[in-house]
Amino acid sequence: MTVTIDCIYDGEVFRPLEKIDLKKGERLTLHIERHISLDPIVLQTPVTDDIIQSLRRESWTSL
């Protein structure tokens, strides 16, 4: 049987966010999938065209 549940790791154990049908002490195999935050990145320094061009020049190497 395969069931997908959302849970939170509290530093010691995984806590399900919904009720699940398992017996106490039942052995399981746990596959962990991390949820990556897609919050925007706030830059401390504004990115200018000059900086972008500089980075582009640095990324190219001649053969």
TrEMBL record:
Tell me what this protein is called.
Answer: Antitoxin
Recite the lineage of the species.
Answer: Archaea, Methanobacteriati, Methanobacteriota, Stenosarchaea group, Methanomicrobia
Is Protein biosynthesis one of the keywords? no
Q: Which Gene3D superfamilies match?
A: AF2212/PG0164-like
Q: Which domain of life is it from?
A: Archaea
Q: Which Pfam families match?
A: AF2212-like
Q: Any idea what job this protein has? A: Antitoxin component of a type II toxin-antitoxin (TA) system.
Organism, scientific name: Methanospirillum hungatei JF-1 (strain ATCC 27890 / DSM 864 / NBRC 100397 / JF-1)
> Would the keyword Repeat be found if you checked this record's keyword annotation?
no
Q: Which UniProt keywords apply?
A: Toxin-antitoxin system
Q: Give the record's family classification.
A: Belongs to the UPF0165 family.
Q: Which InterPro entries match?
A: AF2212-like (IPR008203), AF2212-like_dom_sf (IPR024069)
